[in-house]
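User: Structure please.
Assistant: Input sequence and predicted structure:
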Amino acid sequence: MNRQTKQARIDEYRRLCREQGLPLTEQRMVVLDVVLDLDDHPTADQVLEAVARRDPGVSRATVYRALESLARVGVITKACHPGKAVRYDSRTETHHHLVCLRCDEVIDITDERLDALPVPDTSALGFEVSDFRVQLRGTCRRCRELEETP
């Protein structure tokens, strides 16, 4: 992520905190900065490792709470797949994911055809859809190449 885009995202978070009356803590700012720098769908533990290099005094619980808070206000999103660690995504615009079932890598994919898929009417179930992302699961190039190597 380039410096200008990163600063715009940080400014957006500051604005959201003011609007929603959320405390703008130093720890949340460090966590946001790390997620924007990593830009590769990090797990909470990966964020914790990077935060610890910048500020060793930040606890695991603080990082986890900060990630949840950042996701709740919409400045980052969660990229989840069943049975695996939650990953956090700095991209909030519409895009989809390729998920490797062997190494758990998450790869962004943008495709207008996926964007155009109709969202089913879930009102009869009392469910309101607020986000729509497609997740394609399979095997990444690196894992396939490792399988083919004798």
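The mean pLDDT is 91.
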